[in-house]
Amino acid sequence: MEERNVTTLSQQLERTLNRYETALAELRETDHLEEITPYDSPISRIILYDAKADFLLDEIPSETVESGTIDRYERLSTETQSVLDTAEYREKARSELRTRIDHFPKTVCYFHELDPVPNEVELAVNRRDAIEMYLDKLADYYDLSEQQIRIDTLDDVFRCRYEMYIDDVQDYVVELPYYPDSYWWRHPSAVAAELE
Questions:
Q1: Where would a tag sit more exposed on the chain, N or C end, judged by fewer CB atoms within 10 A?
Q2: Which residue among 33, 55, 85 closes a domain?
Q3: What range defines the domain where residue 36 resides?
Q4: How many domains in the chain?
Q5: Same domain, 91 and 72
Q6: DSSP H helical segments within 38-116, as ranges?
């Protein structure tokens, strides 16, 4: 990996860890879980930042990552795990996942149809990221097979629409090569190559 790419990814990791710490601090200060909204809650942010930091750490060559950065991530991840080990927070996260899945059919239905199209396409991809990250994080606590079946069905339609507009998708979606291949919607150039 080029030194410039390593530097860019390391900077992204640092920003992600800073945001992760802020979200955990906000969650510690939250007194009323019922007032937390699902799309920008501290619970949502810690799940998303945990996954993103993990993806970045997997991508950056280990010899270039400072031990303090790894220790910091492990501390934050352990704290997130302890948050989710608490029933009320775990249930709140599960409720947020349900809400995200319940709203995803509309996202799929209107993919590439609402103005401004670039924002709407990126929003759809971000929503799909979040659902997958929630599924990954909550799989240790719940049987999510019913939710997974629902998402798999929606993904068939989402992928069809995504492929239909692949030229625009390649222009509008921020390709994140450090995301796993299972996040196919984050790899528009790979999807385009499959279509050739």
A1: C
A2: 85
A3: 1-85
A4: 2
A5: no
A6: 42-59, 67-85, 87-109
Distance between start and end Cα atoms, the chain:
27
Contact 44, 67 (CB under 8 A): no
Instruction: Decide which of 85, 118, 149 is a domain's last residue.
Output: 85
What is the rounded CA–CA span in Å between residue 57 and residue 82? 21
Q: Which two tokens stand for residue 149?
A: 């079946």
Largest interatomic CA distance in the chain: 53
Instruction: Check the CA dihedral 177-64-4-52 and report its sign.
Output: positive
pLDDT, tens digit, 9 for 90 and up, residues 36-77:
666 778 899 999 999 999 999 999 999 999 999 999 999 999
Q: pLDDT tens across 128-151, in order?
A: 999 999 999 999 999 999 999 999
Angle of the 42-59 helix axis to the 67-85 helix axis, nearest 10: 140
**46 and 95 share a domain?**
no
Q: Is the dihedral of CA 91, 97, 99, 102 positive or negative?
A: negative
